[in-house]
């Protein structure tokens, strides 16, 4: 027969591996064999091998005394290896230690089987062997003596004795230790088998049997204690009380065996044995015998809880060894012991925080308790209450202000959403490695309530809230530091999330101080209080609870703090707006959300940051759109209430937002959307709009045509959205008679100052405008219309085709009506056209584009814009503001690029008969000459701008003559102090440039000779000798003589001679000296001119001498000098 049955070690216990060894005692039915032995075990024909002796199984027991000695000898062999011995260790190869375990196992199992086979015939066995009782006692004494040697084993053995090699391990310590494990089971099972079948029932030996079981359990706890005492606190959750899988298996066998006896014969339960053993550790009221063993534990409460926790998990095995976990029917709770452990912990400093490592200890304890209290055992509030006693006095400690993990943000930086999210995540998160002890308590509390709170059965909840609420008062909460408040808020939010939300939030809001009453010293504290209160709003929203009863508590505070400008108020408002946004992002309008609207919105939009504006505007748009959708699908009073507060608190502010270009820069779309929504709603419900002093007409006129709209994108986006609503267009046309004119004006405005920003939106406006008959007729042909549609610069085409259309009109009356309508299209153009241009943006592409449009408008439509009888015509106002602006001199850099377009546009006007236009031309040259004629890198020369020269290339002869006349009459007048105009020098450069170039028409040279020569010579005569004009005059005459047209045309030469002759005749009367100086100067250029003048000069001299004039002598002298000089020149040539 093979009776060998031993544990087979798999090394240290893996927390996640619950599978039992297939060759272990439990799986091979050892517990089942003890509790329910086989009825038929005949031994008469079998032999058994005991300590190398083969004997009949039926009679081997008669030599029990001998076999006792054999077993004792084998146990002594193993006992030698309790401590390390170098001599013995060198001889281990000669000893088969596993064999020793096997022969002892075979011997004890044989005896147990023998007893089971004879059952009630134990008395007959005594008859055969009178000493059998004494021999059995000797057997138990031998076993007990060996088991007591467990305390002789060094602590290190408990750590390294386990081995994954199992029974193939050759270490003697391994087998010695496992003999201890096996013999404990054999001891209990053999005593049970002997007593249950002897003439005395086991009830008579129950005390003795229980003592044995207590001893065994004490020994196992001793082993666990040896493991625990060397373990750092941080490893407690990762380690088990089982130093090897065999110990765990033995614990499981004892647990099932003892609880089975408890059910069958009312003996002690497994937990009773455990509690009796560990109570000594908790109370330290023990005999001297155990005092040394028990005082080894430095943290007895944690150790006891650790043992209870892991033994509780063993209840997850069913009787077949399959691990079912919390689903197993064997589970039995042990709350009494947990309560005793926690009460002891509290009494030893756990309540007042007097323990050195209290938070780390509590982290471990709560983690262990969380598993068994929440997942394994039936609910009981006592554990929560006892743990609460460990915290409520210490709420001012920074439990939740962690230094690692996902929630390491400071309290200041945590938003309201962060607070509530942390609460929910803490309850839902199974991993709590980074949580503080208080955080883990809150998780346990929340999990407990989530599972056990029921509206119909509030027993647990009433007990918990009674214990928690009683610890707080208004005065106590007010005294909390920021840390205490944070812990307080976290506690109540945990309760609110998992239990009676309305009740908890009401109590919490009542206990928290007022948020609007704060000073600079406690501002951070009140900011946190405010976040806590806002979390209540969020929670109400999450749970779909009606806000009606609590919102007024908030709005009063919000209306107060929104008027303040300190950082704390701003932070509080930002937090409120975030919560406001979250609540109103949901689809519901039935829970009193409209009450959140109040006067704070108007004030806040005026003061807040760009980021918060975006948040709030998005919310308002979404709420409005949702109201409109709900109103279409159902008719509810709540929608009406929401629309009413939108009109009341939002509409006026939206109208005012268009005045602020900085504000609207990033949020123009939302402003436009809100404006459209209010406009459409005013069309549908004019009564409500009128109630709040608004109307669809006033809204449309503001956003579509008002010049106060600082950002053209608002108008463009607004109109695009309006044009998507056919019914809205129809209704607005009824209300606004000039609707189409406003659209045309808006398109023009968008095309000019909103160029290249959003072409698609401009196209929507353009397509609508093109459908209008008046606009469509301007283009005439389908080709022109198609080109207009496809052109990126459609506004320029519109201006040019408008002029072409006017030219086709036959009667003056038609042209007058046409011009009147055209002016209407560009009404107030001067008030908005420069709005995007500043000192910083003057060189931008948009600025250049705007001035290109201005130039094109002047070039093509001056005749349509100008009215002689209207002093403030669009033409003059626009010219003075954009080209001749004195307030914004930087605009001249843009104006010079369009100079030729402006001047050429004026050609179509009757400038000759309009002195005001002549003044404008004078002012144009006066302001722009220094910008159009500038020095080159070589300071001795000047560059004339193409924009200026283009005027003389493209203008007609009459207009050019008029320009020269204006230049001469305004820039070549000599003042009383003989000073010339400051720009005369530049005019001379222009004239000489025109004379030098060969690309100009004949009439330009002719006009310069006929109009300018006399003015130039006249100034020459009057200025002082070293004036630059003198040289410029000589250069001017030289350029005329060299001019191509002058050389080729005798008539032009004659005109020039006549003009010089007339000028000399006049100047001789005024200043004879300067006249002869002039003649001497031009002699080197052209002797022909002097020869032409000689007869007249001789005649004048003769008259002077005949009449004996005083200056006759000087005249004669100057004339002789001039003649001699002329002869000298001819001789040299």
TrEMBL record:
Instruction: Fetch the InterPro entries from UniProt.
Output: MMS22-like, MMS22L_C, MMS22L_N
**What subcellular locations does the record give?**
Chromosome; Nucleus
User: Record's Pfam families?
Assistant: MMS22L_C, MMS22L_N
Where would I find the MMS22-like C-terminal domain in this sequence?
760-1126
Q: Which UniProt keywords apply?
A: Chromatin regulator, Chromosome, DNA damage, DNA repair, Nucleus
**Could you provide one GO biological process annotation from this protein's UniProt record?**
double-strand break repair via homologous recombination
Looking at the record, the residues that make up the Protein MMS22-like N-terminal domain are 6-548
The answer to whether the entry has keyword DNA repair is: yes
The keyword Nucleus is annotated on this UniProt entry: yes
One cellular-component annotation, GO: nuclear replication fork
The family assignment reads: Belongs to the MMS22 family. MMS22L subfamily.
The protein's name is Protein MMS22-like
Q: Which organism is it from?
A: Melipona bicolor
């Amino acid at each position: 027969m093979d009776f060998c049955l031993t544990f087979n070690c798999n090394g240290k216990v893996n927390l996640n591996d619950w599978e039992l060894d297939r060759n272990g005692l439990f799986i091979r039915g050892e517990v089942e064999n003890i509790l329910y032995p086989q009825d038929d075990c005949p031994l008469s024909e079998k032999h058994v091998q005991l300590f190398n002796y083969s004997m009949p199984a039926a009679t081997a027991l008669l030599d029990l005394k001998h076999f006792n000695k054999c077993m004792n000898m084998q146990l002594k062999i193993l006992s030698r290896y309790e401590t390390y011995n170098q001599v013995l260790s060198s001889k281990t190869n000669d000893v088969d230690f596993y064999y020793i375990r096997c022969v002892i196992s075979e011997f004890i199992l044989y005896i147990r089987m023998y007893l089971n086979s004879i059952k009630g015939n134990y008395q007959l066995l005594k008859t055969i062997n009178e000493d059998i009782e004494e021999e059995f006692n000797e057997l138990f004494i031998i076993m007990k003596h060996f088991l007591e040697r467990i305390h002789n084993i060094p602590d290190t053995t408990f750590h390294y004795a386990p081995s994954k090699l199992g029974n193939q391990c050759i270490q003697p310590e391994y087998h010695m230790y496992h003999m201890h494990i096996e013999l404990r089971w054999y001891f209990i099972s053999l005593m049970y088998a002997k007593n249950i079948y002897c003439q005395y029932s086991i009830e008579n030996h129950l005390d003795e049997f229980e003592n044995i079981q207590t001893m065994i359990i004490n020994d196992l706890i001793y082993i666990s204690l040896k493991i625990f005492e060397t373990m750092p606190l941080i490893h407690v959750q990762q380690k088990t009380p089982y130093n090897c899988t065999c110990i765990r298996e033995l614990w499981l066998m004892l647990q099932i065996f003892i609880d089975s006896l408890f059910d069958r014969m009312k003996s002690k339960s497994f937990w009773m044995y455990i509690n009796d053993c560990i109570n000594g550790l908790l109370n330290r009221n023990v005999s001297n015998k155990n005092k040394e063993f028990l005082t080894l534990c430095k943290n007895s409460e944690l150790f006891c809880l650790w043992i209870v926790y892991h033994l509780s998990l063993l209840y997850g095995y069913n009787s077949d060894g399959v691990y079912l976990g919390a689903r197993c029917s064997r589970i039995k709770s042990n709350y009494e012991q947990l309560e005793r452990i926690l009460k002891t912990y509290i009494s030893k400093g756990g309540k007042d925080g007097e323990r050195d490592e209290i938070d780390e200890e509590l982290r471990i304890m709560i983690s262990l308790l969380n598993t068994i209290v929440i997942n394994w055992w039936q609910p009981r509030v006592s554990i929560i209450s006892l743990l609460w006693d460990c915290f409520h006095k210490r709420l001012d400690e920074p439990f939740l202000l962690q230094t690692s993990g996902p929630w390491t943000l400071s309290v200041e930086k945590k938003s309201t959403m962060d607070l509530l999210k942390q609460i929910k995540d803490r309850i839902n998160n199974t991993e709590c490695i980074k949580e503080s002890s208080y955080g883990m308590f809150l998780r346990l509390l929340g999990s407990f309530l989530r599972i056990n709170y029921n509206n119909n059965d509030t027993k647990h909840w009433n007990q918990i809230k009674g214990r928690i609420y009683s610890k707080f008062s208004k005065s106590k909460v007010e005294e909390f530091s920021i840390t205490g408040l944070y812990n307080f808020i976290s506690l109540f939010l945990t309760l609110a999330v998992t239990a009676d939300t309305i009740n908890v939030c009401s109590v919490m809001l009542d206990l928290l101080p007022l948020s609007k009453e704060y000073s600079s010293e406690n501002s951070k504290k009140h900011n946190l209080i405010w976040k806590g209160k806002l979390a209540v709003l969020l929670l109400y929203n999450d749970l779909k609870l009606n806000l009606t009863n609590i919102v007024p508590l908030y709005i009063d505070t919000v209306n107060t703090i929104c008027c303040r400008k300190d950082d704390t108020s701003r932070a509080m408002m930002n937090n409120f707006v975030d919560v406001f946004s979250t609540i109103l992002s949901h689809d519901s309008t039935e829970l009193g959300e409209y009450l959140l609207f109040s006067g704070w919105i108007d004030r806040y939009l005026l003061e807040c940051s760009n980021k918060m504006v975006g948040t709030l505007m998005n919310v308002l748009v979404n709420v409005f759109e949702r109201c409109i959708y709900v109103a279409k699908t159902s008719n509810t009073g709540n929608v009406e209430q929401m629309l009413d507060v939108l009109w009341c608190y939002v509409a006026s502010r939206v109208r005012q937002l268009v005045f602020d270009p900085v504000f609207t820069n990033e949020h123009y779309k939302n402003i436009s959307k809100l404006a459209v929504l209010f406009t459409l709603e005013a069309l549908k419900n004019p009564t409500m709009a009128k109630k709040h002093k608004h109307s669809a007409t006033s809204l449309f006129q503001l956003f579509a045509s008002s010049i106060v709209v600082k950002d053209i994108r608002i108008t463009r986006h607004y109109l695009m959205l309006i044009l998507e609503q056919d019914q809205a267009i129809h209704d607005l046309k009824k209300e606004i008679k000039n609707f189409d004119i406003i659209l045309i004006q808006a398109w023009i405005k968008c095309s000019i100052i909103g160029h290249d920003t959003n072409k698609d939106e401009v196209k929507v406006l353009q397509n609508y405008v093109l459908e209008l008959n008046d606009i469509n007729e301007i283009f005439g042909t389908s080709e022109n219309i198609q080109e207009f549609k496809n052109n990126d610069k459609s506004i320029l085409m519109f201006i040019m085709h408008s002029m072409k259309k006017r030219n086709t009109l036959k009667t003056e009356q038609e042209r007058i009506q046409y011009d009147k309508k055209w002016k209407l299209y560009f009404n107030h153009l001067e008030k908005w056209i420069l709005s995007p241009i500043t000192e910083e943006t003057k060189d931008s592409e948009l600025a250049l584009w705007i001035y290109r449009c201005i130039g094109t408008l002047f070039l093509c439509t001056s005749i349509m814009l100008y009215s002689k009888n209207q002093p403030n015509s669009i033409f003059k106002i626009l010219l003075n503001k954009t080209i001749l602006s004195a307030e914004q001199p930087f605009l001249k850099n843009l104006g010079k690029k369009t100079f030729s377009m402006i001047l050429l546009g004026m050609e179509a006007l009757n400038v000759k008969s309009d002195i005001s236009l002549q003044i404008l031309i004078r002012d144009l040259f006066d302001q722009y000459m220094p910008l159009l004629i500038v020095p080159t890198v070589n300071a001795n020369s000047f560059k004339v701008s193409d924009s200026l020269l283009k005027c003389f290339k493209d203008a007609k002869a009459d207009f050019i003559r008029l320009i020269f006349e204006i230049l001469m009459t305004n820039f070549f007048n000599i003042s009383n102090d003989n000073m010339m105009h400051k720009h005369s020098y530049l005019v001379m450069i222009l004239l000489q440039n025109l004379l030098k170039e060969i690309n100009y028409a004949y009439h330009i040279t002719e006009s310069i000779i006929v109009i300018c020569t006399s003015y130039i010579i006249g100034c020459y005569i009057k200025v002082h000798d070293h004036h630059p004009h003198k040289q410029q005059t000589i250069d001017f005459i030289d350029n005329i003589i060299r001019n191509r047209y002058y050389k080729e045309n005798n008539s032009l030469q004659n005109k020039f001679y006549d003009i010089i002759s007339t000028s000399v005749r006049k100047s001789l009367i005024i200043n004879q000296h300067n006249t002869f100086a002039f003649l001497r100067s031009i002699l080197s250029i052209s002797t022909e001119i002097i020869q032409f003048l000689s007869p007249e000069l001789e005649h004048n001299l003769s008259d002077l001498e005949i009449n004996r004039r005083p200056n006759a002598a000087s005249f004669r002298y100057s004339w002789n000098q001039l003649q001699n000089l002329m002869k000298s020149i001819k001789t040299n040539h």
